[in-house]
Design goal:
Layout: E1 31-38, E2 41-51, E3 57-62, E4 72-73, E5 76-80, E6 83-88, E7 93-100, E8 105-111, E9 115-122, E10 136-142, E11 145-154, E12 157-164, E13 169-173, E14 175-180, E15 183-188, E16 193-201, E17 204-210, E18 217-225, E19 246-253, E20 261-268, E21 275-281, H1 298-308, E22 312-316, H2 333-348, E23 353-363, H3 366-374, E24 382-386, H4 393-407, H5 412-430, H6 435-445, H7 448-454, H8 458-467, H9 471-477, E25 492-497, H10 505-515, E26 522-527, H11 554-568
Parallel strand pairs: 21-22, 21-23, 23-24, 24-25, 25-26
Antiparallel strand pairs: 1-2, 1-9, 2-3, 3-4, 5-6, 6-7, 7-8, 8-9, 10-11, 10-18, 11-12, 12-13, 14-15, 15-16, 16-17, 17-18, 19-20, 20-22
Helix pairs in contact: 2-3, 4-5, 5-6, 5-9
Length: 572
């Protein structure tokens, strides 16, 4: 396959974790380390286990490849009958491992949306060599895609990672980084990619990117700055005090989900009310209440705007994220729908909210969750779908993969090959009855020819199977809005950005118009020059999201506010 870019694989990002409890191998209170195989390579983890003042286990974790020196607290740890159990609540992650006395290490599974093998050994990993003269962020482009190489020297040696924003591949592990005079080289083991180049000036590296079976690509890196100096991007729409409205941090229970307490922020306009209200439902992936992603906080900006237009807004952390409890990784869209209805029930308990004017505003997957939630919520007043699905999830997956591949410069021939097998995989996963059934169906489809057409190696095969067999993806790929939207009679506003390549506007809005053709109050609109995040964009490619200063198009927010107020504005 003639691909000149890293394969687009979902990346497990270990950022901030949260303390580890009980008895274990003698001694358990010690330093431990693990090499975790993630979709983008090997991630090194260091665990420091101690006892607290009450004699219970406590621990911290460090990810030296991503945040060297930062000690991350772990939420729970127990050691029972030589079985180690760790919960990382903030990430929705966990570790289950058994002690092997003979070889003196723990062996088990790391779970965060998928199951990955993990081996935890006593001690800390060996320091990496220190490489002088390369510290900083280096920018380049492969075909149409931006690539950032980040190099930083620490007390434990020089570490390096690579980002490819257009493929949503971040913190890719860089191995074997070397500098011999002016000759620079590194390897990306997950795709057997290799770079070799020359430092032609202190801020420029010119060389060649090589992947087996693909054409070599000329690559030039330009130093952008030191890695310990974060890039401060202008975000002019982020609200600052005084806000001109009331903001309250609140919590509420989801009675349909054991152990799930949602935490969020309710913003209320000035005045007595009662006010119409919007409940914001985030897109896919674990999101905080501001839907913080790609360096932006779209829900913070949208809530600020709507509240200033007289609409109360409730936004909340997804279950298991930030201040909300629960297990995000074990949940499906149907589970998230119960979280949205719990938010609705909370607003019904307040006298300052108009109980006949509470609606859902769902972005991306949130626009899929809202129609599910409405099936068990006959009191909801309205629904706003921001890039919400109007076609089946399988169709969205096909269209999304095609547009993203084109944006990455992949040829039509290679796209056609991968489309054929990907369509079979998504259909099989949608029809599977369990995680094990999904895995078996995928393995059956991955013939030698299919593997060649997909252009993946052995490590990527296992990751593909893991990513496409979770409860969430099985539910998602089985979702069809035709089973939900035609039954909804409350007012609906559906918006799509013209340049959206994640939920392609033209076919998506056509699907919505067909499903809602008999609806008494449905407004369906394509917004020119906007991407999936409702920013004004040039191409719609994912790599643009972070670089664009605008967080949320004022025109889009104005449409949402006007549409709600025309139907439910507070009477003064």
């Amino acid at each position: 396959m003639k691909r000149s870019l890293l394969l687009s694989l979902a990346c497990i990002l270990l950022a901030f974790v949260s303390p580890l409890t009980s008895a274990s191998p003698d001694p358990i209170a010690d330093s431990w380390h693990a090499d975790l195989q993630i979709p983008t390579g090997t991630l090194s983890l260091i665990f420091t286990i101690t006892y607290d003042d009450e004699g219970n286990l406590a621990a911290t974790m460090e990810s030296p490849d991503q945040a060297p020196g930062q000690q991350i607290p772990i939420s729970e740890i127990s050691m029972i009958d030589n079985h180690l159990s760790i919960k990382i609540a903030l990430l929705g992650a966990s570790i289950e491992a058994d002690w092997n006395e003979e070889i003196q290490h723990f062996s088990g599974t790391f779970t965060q949306g998928m199951n990955l093998p993990i081996v935890i050994k006593r001690g800390i990993p060996a320091d990496k060599p220190t490489i002088e003269g390369l510290d900083g962020k280096w920018n380049s482009t492969i075909t149409r895609n931006g690539v950032d190489l980040r190099i930083k020297s620490t007390e434990r040696g020089t570490i390096s990672t690579l980002d490819s924003p257009d493929t949503m591949a971040m913190n890719i592990t860089v191995s074997d980084l070397t500098k011999d005079g002016d000759q620079i080289s590194y390897t990306i083991k997950v795709i057997a990619g290799h770079f070799i180049g020359t430092l032609t000036s202190p801020d420029t590296i010119v060389g060649t990117w090589t992947v087996p079976g693909q054409d070599d690509v000329a690559l030039t890196y330009t130093r952008a700055g030191a890695t310990d100096e974060p890039v401060l991007r202008n975000r002019p729409q982020v609200p600052t005090e005084p806000f001109g409205y009331i903001a309250q941090d609140i919590t509420y229970e989801n009675p349909q989900a054991q152990g799930v307490t949602l935490a969020g922020t309710l913003t209320l306009p000035q005045g007595d009310g009662p006010f119409p209200a919007a409940i914001l439902i985030s897109g896919s992936g674990p999101q905080d209440r501001n839907e913080t992603v790609f360096g932006h906080q779209p829900f913070l900006v949208l809530a600020d705007y709507l509240t200033k237009q007289g609409i109360a807004v409730l936004r909340y952390d997804d279950r298991g994220v930030a201040e909300s409890t629960g297990d995000y990784s074990a949940a499906t869209s149907a589970d998230f729908a119960t979280d949205a209805n719990a938010a609705f029930a909370y607003l019904l308990s307040r006298d300052d909210i108009n109980h006949n004017a509470i609606g859902f505003v769902g972005h991306s997957e949130g626009g899929l969750i809202a129609p599910i939630a409405i099936q068990n919520n006959k009191q909801l007043a309205y629904m706003v779908m921001l890039a919400g699905p109007g076609t089946s999830s399988q169709q969205i997956a096909r269209s999304q993969n095609r547009l993203m591949a084109l944006s990455q410069g992949i040829s039509e021939e290679d796209i056609a090959k991968s489309e054929k097998i990907n369509s079979k995989i998504t259909k099989a996963v949608a029809e599977s009855t369990s995680t094990d059934d999904a895995k078996a169906k995928i393995r059956e489809l991955l013939t030698p020819q299919a593997i060649e057409d997909l252009g993946i190696n052995e490590m990527q095969i296992e990751l593909l199977i893991a990513q496409n067999s979770s409860p969430w993806i099985r539910y998602f790929l089985g979702y069809d809005p035709a089973n939900f939207l035609p039954q909804i009679t409350i007012p609906i506003l559906a918006l799509n950005g013209e340049l959206d390549i994640q939920v392609p506007a033209q076919e998506n809005l056509e699907g919505l118009r067909n499903l809602l053709k008999d609806h008494p109050d449905a407004t369906i609109t394509e917004l020119p020059r906007l991407n999936h995040m409702f920013q004004h964009a040039t191409t719609g490619a994912l790599g643009e999201y972070n670089d664009i200063e605008e967080t949320f198009s004022p025109e889009a927010m104005d449409i949402i506010a006007d549409w709600i107020n025309k139907r439910f504005a507070t009477e003064n």
